[in-house]
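Reading a protein record of the kind used here takes only a little practice. Each token is a code from a learned vocabulary of local backbone shapes. With that in mind, consider the following protein and its fold in token form:
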Amino acid sequence: MTVTLPEGDEKVSAVRAMFDAIAPRYDLVNRIMTFGLDVRWRRRAVRVLDVGPGATVVDLACGTGDLCRDLAAAGYRPVGIDLSLGMLRHARTRAPLMQGDALSLPFGDGSVDGVVSGFALRNFVALAPVLDELARVVRPGGRIALLDVAAPTNPVLHAGHEVYFGRVVPRIGGALSDPAAYRYLPKSVAYLPAPDAMLAMIRAAGFGAVERTMLSGGIAQLIVGTRLVTTAAERAVS
């Protein structure tokens, strides 16, 4: 079955409705389809954030609060924000949570120490403006740690991953949750820019020391960066 990927306002509505629908079993399906590796990936993202004890960190597209719990365990003060009210209603965290749009974050300029995000980059309506928002709210010297899916570069692993992610995952998700959502999720990788282009976008937004690490043989990626003292946009208006 062909899945047409929505754009613009249609994508916003579709993503919100999809995550509302899969919220009740979202964590269960994640654990099963990643064999629990998603837990390890999130903890690594928190570990490399390294912004100091007591730092305020935003969990962007927080879902049910997995990263919020990991942030709290690491001594940070997490704040979760998500477009999906259904996800927030199924959250399992004591962190403050709010419904909101990644394109217009409810935080002041330079008011947070870091931002993490778990597997959400491809679900934003536009990535470059979201990165600009992160540069706006993160203080100079603050950090971002962004997780998302990836494809292995090894030909054998790549072929196996295509079969698993493209055929097996939709069946697992369809059996346990919403079939349409888990047909969409593998296809949504097409929204992600090529790696070099994505890293260039992050640097252009105002982050330095940008690094991309492939995880678990290349099936996931972790991108980190440090907010520069001034961004190009800030220099343009100074």
User: Anything to note?
Assistant: The chain has one domain: 8-232.
